[in-house]
Amino acid sequence: MSLNIKKAKQLISLVPRVELCFLPTPMHKLERLSKALGINLYIKRDDFTGKNLFGGNKTRKLEFLIGKAIEDKCEYVFTYGATQSNHAMQTAWTAAASNLKSVLYLAAVVDPDENDIKSNLLLDKIFDAELHIVDLKENESFGDATKRAIKLGSEHIRRLEATGKKCMNIPVGGANEIGTVGYISGFVEIEEQAEKMNIDFDYLYHASGSGGTMAGLVAGKKLISSNINVQSVITLSESDNYISSNVKNANSALEYIGAEPIVIESDFDLNRNFLGPGYECPSEASSAAIKLLAKQEGILLDPVYTGKAFAGLLNDIHTGKIKSGSNVIFLHTGGATALFAEKDILGDLF
After folding, report:
1. Number of domain units in the chain
2. What share of the chain is helix, strand, coil (3-state, %, to 5)?
3. Could you give the C-alpha distances from 288 to 9, 307, 315, 348, in angstroms and in order?
4. Of 66, 259, 262, 276, which sits 20 to 30 A from 301 (CA to CA)?
5. Domain co-membership, 320 together with 340
6. Mean pLDDT, range 100-127, rounded to an integer
7. Angle at CA 127, nearest 5°, toward 125 and 132?
8. Share of the chain above pLDDT 90, in %
9. Do residues 26 and 72 both lie within one domain?
10. CA 50 to CA 28: how far, in whole Å?
């Protein structure tokens, strides 16, 4: 199945959705960096998605997740992540704006100071989320702590449902077939903007964590037969089935909107060289990328996701993977609240 933009938008319009974003988000050229780097570099501002000041890519997903929760008459939404999770914070505000109660089980990759709550964790509290902090055990990975958090959350859901309450259980990053539709829609939006700008883009770079954004972008690309090369820069240690699970996720999202499952493993192009020391751990390359974009264009990235993705993009320009004169989009997925998080997350930016 290959659809034009109009028909793809019609399919997407048939599934439950609540309006949380101001769309389309802007896409504009980075004039100074384009000149310095010898390419035509554009930035897609999905840090400007939401009605809330602190937007990001998760809000696109939550339009569909919260929409389904409302249709299913849920009272609670549960989700998971690290203590400074952008997804968890955006779940908290979108739930509050939709008269739902959010419950967050968060793994403490960096231990928060209860006397000095910062950044997304502070916002979670302001949005009245019910917080459960899961401390990492000795030698335990973030992934293993998250599995414990999910188990605790599932037990909590069972207790609530036993009393007649209805809950939606949202996975890490909103990465399921419902949330992934957010970036099928997002990719169609990008292509529509490109058509209006009369530009054929060669590459689209973005940060990939749990994989839902990546799965949606690849599914959207296949749905409308786009020629844009989607480059996913990995920012979270992958599970053994990372690609296969995201193939399944992409195809399930296509089926959810009534399209054919057409995504295969070779559709994904991953760059694994910029994770650095690990998730929520800054790197020299990401710090340099953040400072470059801030000084040249006045735009802020974050050290967890977008800084690492932009570092990957810069590397591919400097090594010649991206040829001179190429038309490139950088998808800014938000997360600048991490600039106000704990020092262990922030890194060396000044």
Report:
1. 2
2. 45, 15, 35
3. 38, 8, 12, 9
4. 66
5. yes
6. 94
7. 45
8. 89
9. no
10. 18
E strands, the chain, are: 27-29, 40-45, 76-82, 101-108, 130-135, 167-169, 203-208, 229-234, 270-271, 327-332
**Angle, CA of 40, 44 and 50, to the nearest 5°:** 165
Exposed / middle / buried, residue 325 (Cβ in 10 Å: 0-12, 13-18, 19+): exposed
CA 297 to chain centre: 23
Q: Quote the mean pLDDT of the chain.
A: 96
Structure token digits, residue 316: 């591919």
Which of the residues 85, 210, 226, 232 is marked catalytic? 85
- Beta-carbon contacts of 253 under 8 Å, excluding residues fewer than 6 positions away, are 177, 178, 180, 181, 184, 215, 216, 219
**Tokens at residue 336, please?**
């600048």
pTM over 0.90: yes
Contact residues for 34 (Cβ-Cβ < 8 A; gap 6+)? 40, 41
Both 198 and 250 in a single domain? yes
Cβ atoms of residues 336 and 301 within 8 Å:
yes
- Cβ–Cβ under 8 Å, residues 168 and 65: yes
Q: Which two tokens stand for residue 264?
A: 């295969």
Token pair, residue 134, equals 């899961």
The pLDDT tens digits of the residues spanning 166-192 come to 999 999 999 999 999 999 999 999 999
Q: CA angle at residue 279 from 274 to 284, to 5 degrees?
A: 45
185 is catalytic: no
Nearest to 12 by CA among 174, 169, 189, 171: 189
The CA distance from 329 to 80, in Å, is 30
| Residue 234 pLDDT | 97
Task: Give the CATH number, domain containing residue 170.
Answer: 3.40.50.1100
Q: Are residues 113 and 220 in the same domain?
A: no
pLDDT > 80? residue 1: no
